[in-house]
Amino acid sequence: MKEKGCLVFFCGKMGAGKSTQAKQMAEKRNAVLLSEDVWLAELYPNLILSFKDYLTYSARLKPLIREHVQNILSTGTNVVMDFPANTVVQRKWFLSLVAAINAPHEFFYLEVSDEQCLKRIAQRRKEEPTRAAFDTESVFHQVTKYFEVPTLEEGLNWRD
Q1: Angle of the 36-43 helix axis to the 51-74 helix axis, nearest 10
Q2: Is residue 25, in this structure, part of any structural domain at all?
Q3: Residue 71 to residues 16, 24, 27, 95, 96: CA-CA distances in angstroms?
Q4: Burial per residue of 38-77, b for 16 or more beta-carbon CB atoms within 10 angstroms, e otherwise
Q5: What's the whole-model pTM score?
Q6: Which domain of life is it from (predicted)?
Q7: Cα–Cα distance between 140 and 10 in angstroms, integer?
Q8: Domain that holds residue 83
């Protein structure tokens, strides 16, 4: 039986550096990189103007992504997902994805201060003006209300 690829995913507040880490990890491991921001921007251009919009369109994306990732992992190819694993429910989704096909996973928690996250978000607004409407301090605080620090009891395969 062919060995499954490994799924790599990240947890961290908005601006913690998840996208940067995901890109570096995918390059380092010669893995397929899947970015939620890219998929959402391509499939739903100019429709995500609020956190509520993000939740709506992100939920539509998950069933398609699930099967796609499982198919890639089943070929023995590693996948790095730049999708948030910032709540218990989101992390359970990642775990169910790999459990269904008996694939390994690695989980990275990027613990970064709110102050540093806000500095990075401000910089990102300058570098990517198309994200300026969503990448704000107000949205950061709104999203951070839902953030749940991961625990060892969740059954995650933690990496540093």
Answers
A1: 110
A2: yes
A3: 29, 23, 20, 15, 14
A4: ebbeeebeeebeeeeebeebbeeeeeebeeebbebbeeee
A5: 0.92
A6: Bacteria
A7: 17
A8: 7-159
For residue 46, tell me if it sits in a domain: yes
pLDDT in tens, the chain (160 residues): 689 999 999 999 999 999 999 999 999 999 999 999 999 999 999 898 888 898 999 999 999 999 999 999 999 999 999 999 999 999 999 999 999 999 999 999 999 999 999 999 999 888 888 777 778 899 899 999 999 999 999 999 998 7
Whole-angstrom distance, CA of residue 22 vs CA of residue 6:
14
Q: Residue 129 is part of a domain; what is its CATH number? A: 3.40.50.300
For 1, the token pair is 């039986």
**Measured between alpha carbons, how far is 144 from 14 in angstroms, rounded to an integer?**
8
3-class secondary-structure state, position 68? helix
Note the Cα 44 to chain centre separation in Å. Answer: 18
Tokens of 52: 């509520």
